[in-house]
Amino acid sequence: MRNPGKTATVSALCLAAALATVWILSLPDAQGQEKSKSAKKSSKGAKSRPMANTKNLDIKADQLSSAFTRDAEELAGQYAEAGHLEKAKAILESALAVNPQSANIQKKLDQVKEGIMNSNDYDVEVNPARGWEPSGAMVVENRPLRIRVEGAYKFDGGGNLTAAGFPSKEPATDMVLGIPCGALMGAIVDGAKVGKPFLIGESLDFTPKEGGLLMLRVNAPSGNKNSGKLKVSISGFIQTK
Question: For 109-120, what is the mean pLDDT?
Answer without folding.
Answer: 86
